[in-house]
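Milestone M4 deliverable, item 7.
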Amino acid sequence: MIEKKSMHEHEFFMKRCLELATNGLGYVAPNPMVGAVVVHDDRIIGEGFHQMYGMPHAEVNAILSVKDQSLLKKSILYVNLEPCSHMGKTPPCSDLIIKSGIPRVVIGTSDPNSLVSGKGIKKLKTSGVDVVNQILPEKCRELNKRFFTYHEKKRPYIILKWAQTSDGYMDVLRKPEEPVGVNWISNPLSRKLVHKWRAEEQAIMAGTGTILFDDPELTLRLWEGSSPLRIVIDRNLRIPPSAKVFNNLVSTLVFNEKQNKVIRNTEYIKVEAGTNILKQIFDDLYHREILSVIVEGGKKILEYCIENELWDEARVFIGEKTFGSGLNAPLIELDPAYSENILTDKLLIYRNP
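Output delivered:
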């Protein structure tokens, strides 16, 4: 018989689950990030995390890491998200837990996925497993904010990102005949951080103006990892084939009002003209199981997302440059949830309440 543990003890081991789970960021989507530990006599004897989409889940890795499998019948399994109970890419974790004879499972929070929600806990309890739920639930939700937003709001987690000068401009005013090129506001370290962020999200979005003026590649070059799916909004197909977003290095979706077509790694998707194009895009991404998208411009897209509450987080760099005049940066009428200095830049993080 396993004696009851205090809330403090539960939280101690749950924090370790969360630490382990973060190792899956950028690798496990559309699955959630999950970590698990096996505890025997107040000592961790096994641990694991979900390492890659389609590969074994955290509970499986933790259980199989225990050298003396006979100890499982006298151990507690901690996991930050409800164990799955359905056959997906891998067998149900709840089945392995039951088969291993683990008598108690401590869970951070229930799974919002309708295929799992409550069913994993019910299956464990029906098999005689003692289940403790809701340990550090807010921290567990925060870790998997993308996963929870996707399943609860039926859209990706939306991150807005831009850089602005210290006097409030995100660009100089440009004319169509002006040469293409990026007008950098943020410093090199901030730009490297942006590439790290790209590695953590499933998709990246930009509009026609940004592509025409800056010709960005929207890929990962300053950080290791996989480049996200590129989302381009080009209503009237004004972007030339020579643009870097059409270099076929990464899959690219072009939402437009003209055609449906596939050219190598680029898919053109026709949307209904004169309507809420962003809503159509986010609906499409939801059906593609895209849990998160980072929106990197331009001004119209960013402001539309803000005005229509289609955002969850905004990351704003304020550089030391001044323009005196130009394209006004979007405005979020909230206090930042977090701020820090990145060399000469100030980074502000906003959260949509």
